[in-house]
Every structure is written in C-alpha cells, then in structure tokens.
Amino acid sequence: MQEPAVTETVDAFHRGGFFLVQPKGRGHRTGMDAMLLAALVADARPLLLADLGAGAGGAGLAVASRLPQAQVTLVERSGEMLSFAEKTLALSENAHLADRINLIEADVTLTGRARRAAGLADGSFDHVIMNPPFNDGRDRLTPDRLKAEAHAMDEDLFESWIRTAGAIMKPGGQLSLIARPQSVAEIIAACGKRFGGIEITLLHPRPGESAIRLLLTAIKGSRARLAFRSPLTMHGPDGHAFLPEVDSLNNGRMAYPRLDVKAM
C-alpha cells in the first residue's frame, strides 16, 4: 500500500524552544528572516505585539518564546495558513506559550471600521512586526497559490501595511520589519510622519557581497533622525555556518536592540 503524501512538517526553532507546523512543498515556510525579525523586539516588559502577515506564525512565536511577558497576536488573511498556526498551538511542546498567542484572520490592508471589526483596534499594541511579501508583482510568480500570496507585493504594499501598523500601535510603540534592500525608499516614504527614529541594518551573506536583506525599526511619533547601523554579515569567507552573532539572533539566544535600548 502506498504511503500517504506528507503535506506538513513539524520543525524545531530556537534549538527546540518552540515547534512550528508548516506546509510541505508549498506555501511560505518560516526561516531565518522570521527569526531575525523576532530578534528586533528587545523589550522584557509585559507587552502586546502584533505580527502582520504572520503566515504559520514563526516570527510571532519566536518573540513569545524569547520574551515570557509578551502577548502575541498573529494576523494573517489566509485561513489555510492560520490553520497551521492552530495546529502549532495545539502541540504539547508549545504548551508553555500557547496561552499567550491570539489568532486573527484579516487582511493587513483593511482600514477604519473594517479593520477594527476584524479585531485590530486603534492604539492597542506596543510592538508591530512584519515580513511583507517581497517580490515585485511584475516578477515571474510561482504557480503555488499559497506561496504566491505570501511573496508577491502590491504596488502600495508598504504604504498600506505601515499605515495599519501606525493605526493599531500605541504612541511610542516600535515598528520592526525585514525586507529587501531595494525597498528602502518605499519603506522610508511610508513611515513618513507616522514613524521616526528609523534605524536600518543591512544583512550581507559574506564580506564583500551585496546586502540581501534590511532590518528596520522605527518609533511611532518620534522625530529622531534616520540612522544606518553597522552591517551584519551572515557567514565567514568560507563555509555556510552562521557567524556567532547571527547564530545567536537566529536561535533566540539574544535580541538585536535599538541603539538606545539595553541589550537583553
């Protein structure tokens, strides 16, 4: 008898700190991008955090895993992807954090009354994190519907997503995101007068190679100037092992705090 096809996997993150149920062979699978995004939240206080476009919930769960006083809301428009998050929260290995995770099925681009009706109230979160779709809509898209939804961005994506972040965040709250470096101009423009104190770190694969990601944090209502931080390099000149700092960020052993925040 032929064995049934495996449609999902259960994967360990933070060296077994939590586990994630994910689709196999389709959809967006959580990786280092989500772990680095989670590392941008360096706040040991009790806090409310929204993970916009959460997918199966990897980044939000990584925050909850490292910060025991964080209450996390996963916001995802795909009911199918949220079903994986539901399975994740049902795992016995995640019992230590499941009661601090809330799920909302909603489109991040909702505005006004529709957004509030979906459960995203004005001025309610201390932190908002996001890993927006990063492929230009003109690029060749994958035939996988779930992956295409997660990876293809609309023309005004950053404006609409950052507008939502500004609406649902408390004054003084922190926005954190990871994106391609090519999107830096759109991101800064979308922050506009909503967010200041922008700090940008470029992530390079190896010394001498071009950046492949940018990490950005900003504060709602701040008037502080933009700062480019020292770059992060993932690997040494040879081999594929992560350098110690990136490995610690990827595995939840440390945070990547803002310049004016004491490291965790």
From TrEMBL:
PROSITE patterns: N6_MTASE. The lineage of its organism: Bacteria, Pseudomonadati, Pseudomonadota, Alphaproteobacteria, Hyphomicrobiales. It comes from Allorhizobium taibaishanense. It holds the Pfam family MTS. This is Methyltransferase. Residues 36-183 form the Methyltransferase small domain. One of its GO terms (biological process) is methylation. Keywords: Methyltransferase, S-adenosyl-L-methionine, Transferase. InterPro entries: DNA_methylase_N6_adenine_CS (IPR002052), SAM-dependent_MTases_sf (IPR029063), Small_mtfrase_dom (IPR007848), tRNA_Adenine-N(6)_MTase (IPR050210). One of its GO terms (molecular function) is S-adenosylmethionine-dependent methyltransferase activity.
